[in-house]
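WARN no homologs supplied; continuing
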Amino acid sequence: MKLRILPILCGLLLPSVVTLSRPAEAQTPIGTGTDVTGEDLEDRGLEALPVSFSELNETEIQKSFEDAEDLFHSADQDTSLPSFGNLVEILEPRAAADQLSESMREILVRSLAYRAQLHFNFEEIDLVEQGLTRMLEIQPQADLERSQASPKLVDQFDRLRRRMLGEVTLALEPPDAGVRIDGRPVDASLGPVAVLAGQRQIDISLPGYAPISRQLEIEPSLSVTLELQLERTSAVVQLATRPAGATVLINGEVRGVTEGVAPDGFLPPGAASKYRREEFSNELIIEGIEVGLVLLEVQLAGYRSQRQELSIDELVDFPLHPLVLEKERGSLQFNNFPRGAEIRVDGTVHRPDNPAARKPQLTLPPGSYHVTVATGTSRMFSTQLQLADRQSIEIDVDLRPGLAFLGVLGGDQETARNLDQSLRLALGNAGRWTLINRSSKAPRVLAEVGVTAETLRTVESEAAAGSRSNIDWQRVQAAVDKNIPGLVYVVAVPSNDLVATHATVWIWPQAPGPVEPDRISLPLGSPQALTDLKKSFNRTIRLQRAWVGALVIDSNGAPHPLVVEVAPASPAEAAGVRVGDLIAGVAGVPVTSRAAFDERIAAAEIGETLDLGVQSPDGARALKLKLGASPDLLATSRADLFDSVAYTELVLLAEKTDPDLAWVVQLDQALILLRSNEWAEAARQLRSIRAPQNSHGVGQATVDYLLGIALSGAGPTFRDAARQHFEKAAAIEGARLFHNDGAWVAPRARARLISIGG
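OK structure emitted
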C-alpha cells in the first residue's frame, strides 16, 4: 500500500456540483443597480407560508422550490425571498440531524444561494455572508451561477471559499473506488475535491478490496494530493435479475436481495434484451467470495429457482448476465368447453390463453384453486384442484344448474362444522346440480338484508303460530342474486346454539322464482334425512302424462270404479269405453277403486296399449286402450319436490322444451307462484300464456280460471277483471284442472263467482 501527501498552494477553487442555471431569456441578472429594500418587501404584504409547510413531503418540497425558482426568474424576483426562506427553515433542521436525501440537500443549498443573492440585492451584507457560509458548510463543492450573479457577489463568494476550503486530489488504484469525506460520497474522478478546512475523515472502499480510512488536516486555500492503492481480498459476483426482489444464495447462504431498477444505459444481452430496462433490478454486488467452486442460487416466490456453478480461479470481478426468472406455471385444459362460457378461478374471471381452440387452455401459478365454468347461473361446472409447477390437468366440463350453498348460520362450532360438511357432501353429490360453495361470503351478504340465525329462528317460531315473516324475502333474493349468484340457494340453521337436535334448511330460487323459501326440518345425525334431501333435488317434472279420456269415480253400489264421462275424440271413446261401464281390470290386474285405476294409468307410458276389462249391463268386454297424451300440471306441492327447486327445474325445461308444450311450463310456474301467494307475479305470468282453446281437458279455460284466482288475491282493485276470467272459465263445461282426466274447472269457476259476488 502506498500513501503520499503533497501540499500545494491553490488559488480560486474550481466550481463544482451545484449551479443555478436557467435559460438565458428567463434570467434576470442581479446587480448593484437594483433599488429594492427590505422595507419595500414588507410593504408588499408578503407572509410566510403556513405552519403545515413544515410537514410537506419531498415531492411537495420539490414543487415549492420550482415555484419559488420560477418567481425568482420573473419580473417580481424580490417576492421569492419568503419562499426560499421557508424552504431553508424546514430543511435546515433535517440537515443538522443528517436526515436529508441528496435531492433535498441540493434544494437546501440552492435555496441558500438564491436567498444570498436576494440579500445581496437588498444590501444586507451580513445575511449574504451567513447564507454563503452555510451553503459551503453543507456542500463545499457548491458554486454560484457566475454568469448571472453580480461580480461583487462572486468576489465575496470566492474570498469566503479561500477562507473556508481546501482541496483534496485523490489518485486511487483501482480508480473506480468509492470515496466518502466526512461520511458523504464525493466524485474524486473529476479532479480536485473542495473540502472544509480542518480535520477531515476520508474513507475509500470497493467491493472485493480492503477498505482504507484516513484523517487529514486540511488547510484553507491549500491542496493535498493523496495516492492510495487498495488491497484485493476476495472475488466479487455482480448480477441483476428480472424481476427485482430475488434472494441470492452462495453455497446455501443468503448473500443479498436484488432491488431497485437498472440504471439508464443498461442493455441486457442475448435473450434478456427483449425486456425493458425498467423490468430489471439494479446490480447486486456480492463480495467475500473465495477461490474455488461456488454454487449460486437465485430464488423468488412464484418463480422457478435458478442454479449455476461458478469456478472462481482468481480474486477478480465476475459480472454475470442478467438473470430472467421464469414464473412457476401449470396449465388447465378444458374438454367440452361450451362456446361463450366464462371461466372463474377463485371468483375472478380469466380469459383462456387460446379461447378459439377446441380445448381452451389456462395457465396459472401452482396452488389450490376453485375453478368454475358457467354460461350464466343455469349452466355451471365447478371443481377444486391442486396445480403443481409444469403440471397439465385436463378438465372435462359438465355444465349443470348452479346450486349455491350459503353455509350454516349459528350453532355451536362443532355442530355447524359437521352440518356444513354433511350438507355439502349430500348436495355436491346431487348429480343434476353443480354445488357452488358461497359459505365464505354469504353470512355477510345475508346479514346486510336482515337474515341471521336469530331472525330465521324467529321467523320459524312465528310461522308455527300463524304469523307472517317479517323478513323482506324479495330484498334477500335480490341481494344474493347480485352478490353470490346461483340458480337455487340453500342455507341451514341449527335449532339452537348450545345443543341442537335438528336444523332447518331454507331453500329458495333465483328471481323471478317465488321469494318465500321452502323449509325442511333435518334431524341431525340422520343419514336417511340427508339421502331424502338429496333425492328431493333430483326429482323430475313431467309436462305430459298418459291420457284415457274418461272420468272415473268410486261408487258405493259397485265393486269397481264407474265411468261417468267419456270425452269426445278421446282414447277411451276410440277403445269403446261407454258411460256406465265399470273398470274391472287393467292389464290383467283387478281394479277396485279410482285411486288404483289412476295409479296404474299414471305409471303407464304415452302411446302404450293396455288391456282393459270392463263390465256393463250388457256383460263383460275386453278392450284395447291406446293411451294418448295429456298436459300434466303440478297439482299440489309434493313433499318430495320443493317448490323452489321445481320452479328452477321449469326454468331449465323452458330452454329445451318443444314449443308446443312451452305453455305447460309457464302454467306450472304460475301454479307455484299461486301457492306462494305471489298474486301479482302469478297474474303477470298467466296473462302471458297462450294455451290451446280446448273444449275438453286442460287449455285456455284452465288458464282463465287460475288467472281469476290470482287477480282475486291481488286485491279488490282487480275484482272485476277476476270476475271476467271466471266467467270465461265457467262457460267451458269440458275444461279440466291439472290434466285432461282431472277435476272439472266450470263448477269451481262458478263457485268463485258466487264468492266474489258475481
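Residues 204 and 212 are 5 Å apart (CA to CA).
OK
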